[in-house]
Amino acid sequence: MVPPGCSARPATVRVRDGINSFKSSSFLTPAERNKYCLECHKGNSRTGWMSSTHESNNLACTSCHKLHAERDAVLAKATQSDVCYTCHRKQRADFARPSAHPVRQGRIACSECHSAHGSAAHAMLNKSTVNQTCYSCHAEKRGPFLWEHAPVAEDCTLCHSAHGSVNQAMLKKTAPLLCQQCHSAAGHPAVARTGGALPGGAAGGSAFVMGGSCANCHSQVHGSNHPSGVKLMR
Q1: Which pTM was predicted?
Q2: Is 165 helix (H, G, I), strand (E, B) or coil?
Q3: CA distance linking residue 165 with residue 91, whole number of Å
Q4: Ramachandran class of 22: left when φ > 0, alpha when ψ lies in -120 to 50, beta otherwise
Q5: How far apart are CA 64 and CA 133, in angstroms?
Q6: Which of 65, 56, 49, 59 has its CA nearest to residue 117?
Q7: What is the mean predicted confidence (pLDDT) over 192-215?
Q8: Whose CA is closest to 114, among 163, 156, 69, 165?
Q9: How many angstroms separate the CA atoms of 33 and 43, rounded?
Q10: How confident is residue 73, by pLDDT bands cut at 50, 70 and 90?
Q11: For the stretch 58-83, what's the b/e string if a residue is b when 16 or more beta carbons lie within 10 angstroms of its beta carbon?
């Protein structure tokens, strides 16, 4: 029985008390929190936010940024990766491998390759393709070359692990195993590494191939401009 002059509140209505702090415990949804930020921050770097991977996963701006802080960790090259690693734990492990980009040393930030606010490219890359992103730093690999190595022009990640590898030069496999994913060993000393393929074995394995593999002879693996460089040997 409701006393005269009083109104009853339905049990299903939730009272929203307190001040919106924009923290993860805020009563506002991520989309509602982001709306206030985007009223001012509508620059070119945020045009891809809607329907981006981060937005689709219900991330709020404050999941990465500190509001009106003197120093925002995600904006500093040395500390940005620690913020990203909060979610991207596999990438943390990759960058701890022996051969990796110097993110751990604070010399490269994740945002130099990826656009956290959204991108039309795969993996939210800053550039339209993987290769264009890599060429931002590795301009000498861009070419054009007189003699072109097809996988290089297609996709750098066919051979390299961008976040890190246990192999030198961030290669996905050691050579000649890496090279033999495309190149047949038939009629060539770069046979598979079996007992018979060792130097002196039945398969006639070459000591040059076993020691440093294909790159001992084919040193210009990214392409060659030498008139006689058809086999990328000079």
Answers
A1: 0.77
A2: strand
A3: 11
A4: left
A5: 23
A6: 49
A7: 61
A8: 163
A9: 18
A10: very high
A11: ebbbbbbbeeeeeeeebeeeeebbeb
